[in-house]
Amino acid sequence: MRRQLLEAIDLARAIIDQIENVKGEDIVLLDLREVTLIADFFVICTGTSDRQLSAIVESIHTHIKREYGIHPLHTEGDGRSGWTLVDYGVVVVHIFAEELRRYYDLEGFWKDAKVLLRIQ
Question: What is the mean pLDDT of residues 64-72?
């Protein structure tokens, strides 16, 4: 296992790579450092089915653990619920079904955060 120290932004990028690998959609990276202390970055994405939502979570967990030896502090929800939160401390990942993403509108709630990346 390859272990290395990661900056928060590098962890966020590695997570985004995994989301792209399993065809997650509408990926957004928010920089929260100037607006809150709860995390440095939010990664938000959409999956098209329960199965894909679960695959995104599994891909992130497996890759980040294997490549960097990092486990999430907490994971809540699953593909069937339509929203899974994966908390790595400095980076929090929100994996949504499209309907719930619109409903909770995290980008709107955190509108003062800088959008560093958006992949449609």
Answer: 94
